[in-house]
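Lab meeting, item 3. Inverse folding demo.
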């Protein structure tokens, strides 16, 4: 997710908080209105939800991108899934995840696909997996074949989901060496 996408995701999360409705519920409101023109949808959202022009505009764009499939989904929004990964004893690991994502977001565009226990990062193909492995460790899996393994960058058995794994227990481990490995995987996934 690039910086623009991150800003939109933050704005949509704030809209959910202010309205007390999930994105799926908000998209249903748009679909139920029967309106199709952007300006009409935006004005309807302003009137119905009592939100401002900018929020209504962002929500109208989101609903248009979501399409009909979003109406049927009751899936948790991606930012909620990531938050759910880092609850309870794993909450202390969230700064590691966030620090690494800040670095990765600087690379450019990619897709973030939250799963039940990790987040998949994809371009044309998956280049990394990131998530808490235990209450004290975040694991980063990298899909790239050309890195020299070392104590920190552990090569995985052939046929697995990732070629390498890095165990992270402290935010200070998100350093230039790690970022270079992730960048190489990112570039190779183009």
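The presenter then showed the designed sequence:
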């Amino acid at each position: 997710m690039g910086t623009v996408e991150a800003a939109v995701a933050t704005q949509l999360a704030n809209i959910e908080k202010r309205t007390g409705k999930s994105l799926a519920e908000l998209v249903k409101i748009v679909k139920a209105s029967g309106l199709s023109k952007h300006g009409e949808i935006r004005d309807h959202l302003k009137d119905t939800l009592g939100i401002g022009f900018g929020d209504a505009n962002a929500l109208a764009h989101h609903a248009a991108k979501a399409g009909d499939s979003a109406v049927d989904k009751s899936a948790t929004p991606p930012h909620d899934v990531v938050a759910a990964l880092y609850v309870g004893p794993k909450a202390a690991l969230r700064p590691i995840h966030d620090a690494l994502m800040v670095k990765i977001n600087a690379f450019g565009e990619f897709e973030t696909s939250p799963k039940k226990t990790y987040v998949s990062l994809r371009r044309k193909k998956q280049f990394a997996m990131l998530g808490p492995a235990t209450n004290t460790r975040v694991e980063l899996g990298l899909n790239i074949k050309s890195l020299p393994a070392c104590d920190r960058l552990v090569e995985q058995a052939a046929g697995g989901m990732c070629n390498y794994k890095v165990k992270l227990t402290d935010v200070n481990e998100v350093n230039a060496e790690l970022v270079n490995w992730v960048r190489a995987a990112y570039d190779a996934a183009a």
